[in-house]
Amino acid sequence: MSALESKNLPDITGTWILNRKYSTDPEDVFALQGVPWIVRKALKHARLSLQLWQTKSNASSGGETDGSPGLTDASEPVTRLRLKQVVSPGNFDSEGTYPVDGTPQELSLPIFGDLTMRLQFINTSGILEDVIREKLEKFSINKEVIQELAKNSTKGWDAEVIWGFEEIEGSKYLTRNISTTKGNDKVIARMVYHLEN
């Protein structure tokens, strides 16, 4: 099933299931990111889902803030993305809530280790990776996307992940286009998700 027609950025609330038919095999990305071989093999056959809740609140209201200073005015509503990744079978589930305003976040994930990450809304013209920018400027359903910039200093890699909606074979899907760089090596992949019934 494709994403519901009513779904569009900036709202990606829902439960999204990885569609392996349209997704890139993540083996090369995980290998570059230093994910252990046994974990990569488990992920290759696991069911991956993303449960997403998107909310807006005033940064000064204290409702959902985590105490981190935002990059926007405190009186402006801040979009927050609560993300729960479920891997079945396996013991790699993760959950967190992140402001989508460019604020750096320190986090630790079972698969990827300690990261610095920030999320923000950007126009497709602001995508850093040329290959991804050119593709989404042509095929993205709308021009606003979520840019996720992640860095693992310990393992020495950086990633730009672009969340958006694309039309694939006549249906709309949530996609995460990923560019991972480590030294002189770079891997580009696309993860495609359909909305769970």
Task: Give the tally of structural domains.
Answer: 1
How many DSSP E strands? 10
Computed Rg:
16 Å
Question: Structural class, from helix and strand content?
Answer: mainly beta
Give the helix/strand layout.
Blueprint: E1 14-18, H1 27-32, H2 37-45, E2 47-58, E3 77-88, E4 94-99, E5 105-109, E6 113-123, H3 130-139, E7 144-152, E8 157-168, E9 171-182, E10 185-195
Antiparallel strand pairs: 1-2, 1-10, 2-3, 3-4, 5-6, 6-7, 7-8, 8-9, 9-10
In brief:
This protein is mostly beta strands.
Characterization of the model:
The protein is mainly beta and 197 residues long. It has a single domain, classed as Calycin beta-barrel core domain (Lipocalin). A ten-stranded antiparallel β-sheet has the order 4-3-2-1-10-9-8-7-6-5. InterPro entries: Pericyclase_pydY-like.
Structure keywords:
197 residues, mainly beta, Lipocalin, ten-stranded antiparallel β-sheet, 3 helices, 13% helix, globular, Pericyclase_pydY-like
